[in-house]
Design goal:
The complex is a heterodimer.
Chain A: H1 4-9, H2 12-19, E1 32-38, E2 43-51, E3 57-65, H3 68-81, H4 86-100, H5 112-119, H6 131-146, E4 150-152
Parallel strand pairs in A: 1-4
Antiparallel strand pairs in A: 1-2, 2-3
Helix pairs in contact in A: 2-3, 3-6, 4-6
Chain B: H1 21-25, E1 34-35, E2 38-39, E3 41-42, H2 53-65, H3 76-96, E4 104-107, H4 110-125, E5 131-135, H5 144-153, E6 156-160, H6 170-176, E7 181-187, H7 199-208, E8 212-216, H8 220-223, H9 228-231, E9 235-239, E10 250-254, H10 256-259, E11 272-275, E12 280-282, H11 296-312, H12 314-332, E13 338-341, E14 350-355, H13 360-368, E15 372-373, E16 375-377, H14 382-388, E17 393-397, H15 404-420
Parallel strand pairs in B: 3-15, 5-6, 5-7, 7-8, 8-9
Antiparallel strand pairs in B: 1-2, 4-10, 9-10, 11-12, 13-14, 14-17, 16-17
Classes of the chains: A alpha+beta, B alpha/beta.
């Protein structure tokens, strides 16, 4: 029997992004990228960014392998980041990380549609073992933005 | 609904009733745990096994009544604790059928034991260009310590292949052996596939070339009767926590002829003969390899664990688990989208599988909510995962207390996961 918390975790939107990830593949003309790695499970993700001179994220893509949660999180992240400034992207990341860890998240200034997307992932907070699946892509985005090239969930 | 004996698939369940499993389950307090309101179905035994009351009591008793440091004081409690600790060594020696107690070294676990052999034995014999043969299905703990010898001593690592069914290919292994082969390090039973390797034949072939054989028995010793003299291996490694004993304890068997010649692994108290301002001389085995206060109570707990297993009988355990494996395999192969990794004849009670298009983590999360504990991941065997071209699998691993009814719950939960992610 699939219990309500599982339904909350694997919402339709997450299953959909997991099965059909958006912005999946290599980004031509990327000027920043980083690899993310979850040593616990061997999952890998690479995030590609094209950032203009004003630090605006013109385009973002990812590839790699992972579970439904990590792929969906990466896919939804690419939708959220496109067109934002790096600093806005990081503010979203902070809100996201707090939310999935079950901490008080600050969503001030977050666009309402973006907030809906982010909150689809909130069910992860009930599954502490899966938090790293959800956060890998975001950490990798931050590494790419900062030019550090590698991120792990450790 | 699974869990009802009458619902058992009669075609598959050939009940050999080697022992009363319901009676055995009462020995393990944790098995009555409920998770998310469901009875726990613990099928992660290859990662770590649960503990019988006999072990819990032995640990409690050691702390309450027999605790002091060992091999040091002359007082009553020190003597009692030392007798209990050394008594545990004798039990492990008998369990593996080693010749002498001095051949049994207590370690903090299987990893520690393998590091000890690689460091003390490998470190003293490996010259640049010497070869070490590992199987492709080794656990990282039987890879990384040897990789240190590649980095530090210039060893060359060679990988013995397996078939698509996960069988160890003895012929291919034989071709890898050369005059440069100094060490062969193989698992007795694969933690990811369940494959049982032909250790006696491996040893015979390796010895013909003058190579020593290190056997990782962390799984093997749990599921098979082990006789290190019959196997004739040079080293054999066990870990306590998979043997229904405490964590933090393992043992290394080494032939006395090797151990007597080996340099120490770590320095400290207990492992010395004499320390002066001019220098240090070392104790004989096994103390030479047990620097510092050892895991005293954990060793005593391990002694209780092997007593417990012996009281049931390892042949009986093996038969019971073989029955579980046969029943579970029979039910799981019927699921279309499921692929089982490891079909070696006579394999141990481990089923590694993937569901097409679904990640093992997602499967495991769904199964967990049915109370079913399985491992999802690379099982610390990434070269093996690469061999099969997968990142991870889900793994159900059985122990002596698992039941056919639990297999039914497992299968139902797998079906549920298949359905959910369809």
């Amino acid at each position: 029997m699939i219990d309500p918390e599982l339904r909350e975790l694997y919402q339709e939107i997450i299953l959909d992004h997991g099965r059909h990830p958006r912005h999946f593949g290599q980004l031509e003309g990327a000027n920043r990228e980083a690899d993310g790695h979850n040593p616990l499970c061997g999952d890998k993700v690479r995030v590609y960014l094209r950032v203009d001179n004003d630090d605006k994220i013109e385009d973002v893509m990812f590839d790699g392998r992972g579970c439904a949660i990590s792929i969906a999180s990466a896919s939804m992240m690419t939708e959220l980041l496109t067109g934002k400034n790096v600093s806005e992207g990081k503010a979203l990341m902070d809100a996201f990380l707090s939310m999935v860890k079950g901490e008080d998240a600050c969503f001030e200034g977050v666009d309402e549609d973006d907030l809906d997307q982010l909150q689809a992932m909130s069910g992860v907070s009930e599954f502490p073992m899966r938090v790293k699946c959800a956060t890998l892509a975001w950490h990798t985005f931050a590494a790419a933005a900062d030019g550090t090239q590698e991120a792990t969930t450790e | 609904m699974a869990g009802v004996p009458g619902m058992l698939d009669k075609k598959l369940a050939t009940d050999v009733s080697v022992f009363d499993v319901e009676q055995i389950r009462k020995d393990f307090p944790i098995l009555s745990t409920e998770v998310y309101g469901r009875p726990l179905v613990y099928l992660d035994n290859a990662a770590s096994a649960q503990k019988p009351k006999a072990v819990l009591d032995a640990v409690q008793n050691a702390y309450e009544n027999e605790y002091a440091n060992v091999h040091r004081g002359l007082h009553y409690l020190s003597s009692t604790a030392t007798l209990a600790y050394e008594g545990a060594r004798t039990k492990v020696r008998r369990f593996l059928n080693a010749r002498n107690d001095e051949e049994i070294i207590f370690t903090s676990g299987g990893t520690d034991a393998l590091n000890l052999v690689a460091s003390s034995f490998g470190g003293s014999i490996i010259e640049p260009g010497d070869e070490i043969i590992l199987s492709i299905m080794e656990h990282h703990s039987n890879i990384v310590p040897w990789d240190y010898l590649r980095q530090r001593n210039g060893a060359v690592l060679k990988w013995a292949p397996i078939s698509d069914d996960g069988e160890f290919l003895l012929d291919e292994f034989e071709k890898l052996l050369s005059d440069k082969t100094k060490i062969v390090a193989v698992t007795h039973m694969s933690n990811a596939l369940g494959t049982i390797t032909p250790v006696a034949e491996i040893v015979r072939l390796a010895h013909n070339k003058g190579a020593a054989v290190v056997v990782d028995g962390c799984q093997g010793a749990v599921h098979l009767p082990v006789d290190v003299q019959a196997l004739d291996c040079d080293f054999y490694v066990v870990t306590g926590h998979k043997l229904y004993g405490p964590s933090g304890i393992g043992a290394l068997y080494g032939k006395a002829e090797h151990l007597r010649k080996l340099p120490p692994y770590r320095g400290g108290g207990e492992m010395i003969r004499e320390v002066t301002t001019e220098g240090v001389t070392y104790a004989d085995p096994p103390n030479r390899f047990e620097a510092g206060t050892p895991p005293i109570v954990q060793a005593i707990g391990l002694g209780a664990a092997v007593d417990y297993i012996e009281s049931i009988g390892r042949e009986n355990v093996h038969q019971h688990e073989a029955q579980l494996l046969q029943y579970a395999t029979g039910k799981l192969v019927g699921l279309n989208s499921l692929r089982i990794f490891g079909k070696a004849p006579g394999k141990g009670a481990i089923i590694s599988f993937e569901i097409e298009g679904t990640h093992a983590h997602d499967i495991s999360t769904i199964m967990d909510r049915s109370g079913v504990a399985v491992r999802a991941g690379h099982h610390c065997a990434q070269p093996l995962m690469d061999r099969f071209g997968v990142a991870s699998t889900a793994r159900a691993s059985f122990g002596l207390y698992n039941t056919l009814q639990e297999v039914d719950v497992l299968v139902e939960s797998v079906k549920e996961a298949v359905e959910f992610f369809r």
